[in-house]
Each structure stands twice: as structure tokens, then as C-alpha cells.
Specification:
With 261 residues, the protein is an alpha/beta fold. Helix content is 42%, strand content 15%. Helix 5 runs parallel beside helix 6, helix 7 runs antiparallel to helix 8 and helix 8 crosses helix 9. The N and C termini lie far apart (69 Å).
Length: 261
């Protein structure tokens, strides 16, 4: 009887651990404006909870409200003892839905941390879809490409923020099959086109980005941002054919093309 109850408990725990959709996201230069490739920029942003890329939290919130079986996992190579509280505060204060934050346990970074965490999550959760979010500053594009190939039977979409350019600081540009973006507008358009988000998600993100762009003086360094003054998005290509675009979207697209030319 005890063995039977034990088996039932194991099956129950296994079933409840699965999630249909996994969101796996980097933080620095993906959600938070960090300028991680600059020693000065990364140092000054370390304890900054206010500088964020606008619209990303709202997209994650809409994903949460649109899907009953979804988890949000944030993976950072930063040491937990140094940056754990800061990352937790950033996610909480900016209202990102959180299932778990994964970080290096010791001071010394494990360069394979992201692969290990993602591999464990995919094996444990057995998702039907994985949404990866990262940037082209460090290794996100490479790591996500490796995981997508290793778990090729699990459908996956990879969104890479074009924070840097291969003609500038980036040594790890967006890879074939990955979706490059510079604002949250492109992300919400793409998710809607794939029926992952409802059409009703669009206008809120458009308005958030548009209002912020109208206040942008071209040298943004602190607070809520679309384009930090240091961003170099020359690799970005607009790939979405939006029928009957709103006037605000035309303006947003025009500004993106000007900033990324």
C-alpha cells in the first residue's frame, strides 16, 4: 500500500511539474538597460532598478494572463551573492511575472550555467513551446541556438534584442532562425502573428513605446527607455508585413529605421 501511495505521489508531482509554455529570459540588456559590454555602464547599472526597456513587462504579463499553464524563468550569469537581491528587486518592482530566478551560486561564474538550467527545465517541464528572450551582447544567441537544436522536438521561438551591432561591440550576433528586435512592438506583433498573444495585446504596447519615443531626446541614459543612447542596432531588419498599420506604428517604424541605419 505504501509503495502504491508512493507511486501515486510521484506521478502527481511529475504531472504538476509540467508546463505547456516556458518563458526563459535573460535580464541585462534584454529587460533591463545595463550596457553590459561597457565596464562603466555595467557598474553604474548594477544597482539601478528603474532603467528598463518599456513594454517588456507588459508583454510578459499578457502572456501570463493569456495562458493558464505558463512559467517564467530568468537566467543570469551574475553571481547570486552580488546581484541576487538587485535582480529580484528589478523583476518585482517592474511587475515581471516570476516562477524562478536562476543565477550563479558562487562568486566564480559558471559559463555553462544557462545551458544547465535550460536543459534541466526542458527535461523536467516537458513544455509544448519555449519562448527564449535574450540580447546580442554576450552568449544568449549561441546558447539558445544550442538548446533549440539539442531539444529540436520542442517547438521554440527565440527573440534577441539588437542592443549591439556586429559592426560594433557585438561578438555574438543574432543567428539564423532567431528573431531580432529593438522594441517591444516587434515582439508583440510577432507573438500575435503566431496566435500566442491575442490581438488586444497590441495597442497597449504600441502606446507605451510611442509615448516614450516622443519624449526621447536621442541620449537616453536612465529610466524607462526604448533606445538607450549607446544602443547600436545596425544589424536589425524589419521583417513584419503589417496590413493597414496605424499612424503610430508608421512613426515607430520610421524612428527605428532612422536609429538603426
Amino acid at each position: 500500500m505504501k509503495n502504491l501511495m508512493g507511486m501515486i505521489l510521484v506521478l502527481f508531482l511529475t504531472a504538476t511539474s509540467e508546463a505547456k509554455i516556458l518563458v526563459i529570459s535573460d535580464i541585462d540588456d534584454t529587460l533591463k538597460v545595463s550596457h553590459i559590454l561597457s565596464k562603466l555602464g555595467s557598474a553604474t547599472s548594477a544597482f539601478d532598478d528603474d532603467s528598463k526597456f518599456v513594454g517588456m513587462a507588459e508583454i510578459f504579463q499578457d502572456l501570463e494572463s493569456s495562458h493558464s499553464d505558463i512559467e517564467f524563468h530568468y537566467v543570469s550569469l551574475a553571481p547570486q551573492v552580488l546581484m541576487g537581491e538587485q535582480h529580484e528587486d528589478f523583476l518585482e518592482e517592474n511587475h515581471f511575472p516570476v516562477t524562478e530566478l536562476h543565477m550563479n551560486k558562487g562568486i566564480k561564474q559558471d559559463p555553462e550555467l544557462k545551458q544547465k538550467v535550460i536543459r534541466r527545465l526542458l527535461l523536467d517541464k516537458k513544455p509544448e513551446l519555449v519562448l527564449y528572450f535574450g540580447d546580442n551582447g554576450q552568449f544568449d544567441a549561441i546558447v539558445y541556438d544550442q538548446m533549440a537544436k539539442e531539444f529540436s522536438r520542442i517547438p521554440a521561438l527565440t527573440y534577441i534584442r539588437e542592443a549591439y551591432s556586429s559592426r560594433g561591440e557585438s561578438k555574438h550576433p543574432t543567428m539564423p532562425g532567431q528573431i531580432g528586435f529593438v522594441t517591444s512592438v516587434e515582439v508583440v506583433i510577432d507573438l500575435i502573428s503566431r496566435n500566442i498573444l491575442p490581438k488586444s495585446s497590441y495597442l497597449q504596447i504600441q502606446d507605451i513605446v510611442y509615448k516614450r519615443l516622443m519624449k526621447d531626446d536621442g541620449d537616453e541614459t536612465f529610466g524607462k527607455m526604448v533606445f538607450p543612447g549607446w544602443q547600436d542596432c545596425r544589424d536589425f531588419k524589419w521583417i513584419w508585413d503589417v496590413k493597414n498599420p496605424t499612424e503610430k506604428l508608421r512613426v515607430i517604424k520610421s524612428i527605428i529605421q532612422q536609429r538603426c541605419q
